[in-house]
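Re: beginner question about structure tokens

> Can someone show what the tokenized structure looks like for a real chain? I only ever see the sequence side.

Sure, here's an example I had lying around. Input first:
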Amino acid sequence: MGKFTANLTWALALAFSLSSPGQAASGKRVTITGELIDTWCYVSQIMGGSDFIVGSAHRTCALWCSAGGIPVGLLGQDGKIYMVLKFEDDEASVANPRMMAIADHTVTVDGTLHERDGIHYLMIDKVRNDQGIVDRTHESAGVIPPFAVPK
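And the corresponding structure tokens:
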């Protein structure tokens, strides 16, 4: 089992343990502003550096990854990544249509923050403000960043 798969399995196990009635873990109420990101491409940088894995230049890939089950994250203005375990009233899947509709948008959310072993988990209760895609990277990167075009 690869490291990413092991981490994803661990994160899902934590999500289920946080939601089970016998082991309710207390979290901290927070309001966080940041961009909803594709955690796989952000962490692995498989699609390039930080200029290409956020904003409009990465939207299509972020949608594919989310639909494929890759956890969505919130890249906070504080530079931390918050893995989204719950989005509003949908506890079954973070790859729901509402979440995908705001991929790569800068949002302000209210929710509950859980921290364990240096990882930040966020259960979003409400999107307070949706600014849309703020980072319009297509102007500088093009629809496909030059390094991603096969030679």
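Each token stands for a local structural state, so reading them left to right follows the chain. The chain has five helices and five strands.
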